[in-house]
Specification:
Largest sheet: 6 strands, mixed
Strand content: 15-25%
Number of helices: 11
Distance between the termini: 33 Å
CATH architecture of the largest domain: 3-Layer(aba) Sandwich
C-alpha cells in the first residue's frame, strides 16, 4: 500500500482528508477492447461507424466516441442502407441481431466481451444437452437480453432474487443448468446459487463462475477499503450494473454512506463535504480520468493524502477482431 500526499510544502489551512483509492478499479479488458474496436474502426473506415447500443455504460466514453464520428443507435432498423461498419456493444446481443444484419448485408464487428461470449456458449451447450437454463441476472439489462436471446423462446427462466430461486418450479428437476450475468454481486449470486443447488441437487453450473474476474476483483478492492472509509464514492454511470454493485458492497462492507457519482460536478457536497476518510473506486466502464477528476475536486477543498489499496493485479487482454488488426498499433 503506497501513501501519496498531494499537500504542498507550505502548511495548508484546508481540512485534512484521507482518500483510500481502491485497486483494481476502472476499465477492464472487455471494456478496453470494445472501445478500441470503435476507435480502430473509425481510424480504418472513417466516420460514420454505427454502434448498436452504448458500447459500454458510460456517458463520458460514449460522448467522446460520438465526437470522433460514432453514431449510436438502439436497433439496426435505425441505420440507413450503408457500407459503414456496424458494431455490437460489449454487453452482447441476441442471435437475432447478427441474423438481421446478415439479411441486410451489413458489415458488422462484434465487440461482445469474450467473457460474455463464454456465458453464451455455456448456455447454448447446456440447452443442447436438454437442460432448461436458469439465468441469474437483472431483467432488462442488455447482457441478460443478449444471453436469453441465444436460445429459443421458453428455454431460459430469469432468476433475479433468492425468492425467485425458492419459487421456481421445474418441469424436470433433473434437467436444469444455471448461468449468470457477469456483473453481479458475488455475495448475492452465491446465495442464489446455494438456494438452487439445495432445491435442485442435480443442477449443472459453469465449469468456471460466470461473474467475471474484473467484477470480482473490483468488489474485493471495495470491500478492503469499506471498513476503513467513513464514506465511499464509486465513479460510474447509473445504468452500469457492476458500478451499482460496488455501492452495495461498500455499504455491506462497513461504510456509513456510499454513492454512485458520474462526474465531479455531480458530487453532493452536503453529503461528502465533511468526510475525514473517503474511499474511491470506479466501475469497469469508467475511465481513470474521471477518478482523477473526482480526486481533484476533493483536493480543491481538502488537504488530501491518498493511499492506494491494492488487492489484486490484472494483466488480462483480449484480441480485437481480425479485420482491425492491421490498423496502427493494433
Amino acid at each position: 500500500m503506497a501513501e501519496i500526499s498531494t499537500k504542498d510544502d507550505a502548511v495548508s489551512s484546508k481540512t485534512r482528508l484521507k482518500i483510500l483509492l481502491a485497486a483494481p478499479r476502472g476499465f477492464c479488458a472487455g471494456v478496453d477492447r470494445a472501445i478500441r474496436i470503435v476507435e480502430l474502426a473509425l481510424e480504418k473506415y472513417g466516420a460514420p461507424v454505427y454502434v448498436r447500443h452504448e458500447i459500454v455504460h458510460n456517458r463520458f466514453v460514449v460522448d467522446r466516441l460520438r465526437d470522433l464520428g460514432a453514431v449510436f443507435v438502439e436497433e439496426l432498423d435505425e441505420i440507413p442502407e450503408t457500407k459503414a461498419p456496424v458494431i455490437f456493444s460489449a454487453h452482447g446481443v441476441p442471435k437475432s441481431v447478427p441474423a438481421a444484419a446478415d439479411k441486410r448485408n451489413m458489415f458488422y464487428l462484434d465487440a461482445t466481451c469474450p467473457l460474455v461470449t463464454k456465458v453464451h456458449r455455456g448456455a447454448d451447450l447446456q440447452h443442447a444437452n436438454g437442460r432448461h437454463i436458469l439465468l441469474i441476472g437483472h431483467a432488462g439489462h442488455p447482457e441478460v437480453i443478449g444471453t436469453t436471446g441465444q436460445l429459443p423462446e421458453g428455454a431460459v427462466t430469469l432468476i433475479e432474487t433468492v425468492d425467485d430461486a425458492e419459487a421456481f418450479e421445474a418441469e424436470d428437476p433433473e434437467q436444469l443448468a444455471y448461468a449468470t450475468q457477469t456483473t453481479l454481486s458475488v455475495d448475492d449470486t452465491a446465495e442464489i446459487v446455494s438456494t438452487l443447488m439445495r432445491r435442485f441437487p442435480s443442477i449443472a453450473g459453469p465449469h468456471k463462475q460466470d461473474i467475471c474476474y474484473a467484477t470480482t476483483n473490483r468488489q474485493e478492492a471495495v470491500r478492503a477499503i469499506a471498513g476503513r472509509a467513513e464514506k465511499v464514492i464509486v465513479v460510474g454511470a447509473p445504468n452500469s450494473s457492476n458500478s451499482n454493485r460496488l455501492v452495495e458492497v461498500a455499504l455491506r462492507g462497513g461504510a456509513v454512506d456510499a454513492a454512485l457519482v458520474e462526474r465531479a460536478r455531480d458530487i453532493d457536497w452536503d453529503r461528502f463535504g465533511t468526510v475525514e476518510t473517503l474511499g474511491i473506486s470506479a466501475g469497469a466502464s469508467a475511465p481513470d480520468e474521471l477518478v482523477q477528476e473526482i480526486i481533484d475536486a476533493f483536493s480543491a477543498r481538502f488537504d488530501v493524502a491518498i493511499e492506494e489499496v491494492e488487492t489484486a493485479q490484472e494483466n488480462v487482454a483480449f484480441n480485437i477482431p481480425r479485420a482491425l488488426r492491421d490498423v496502427g498499433n493494433a
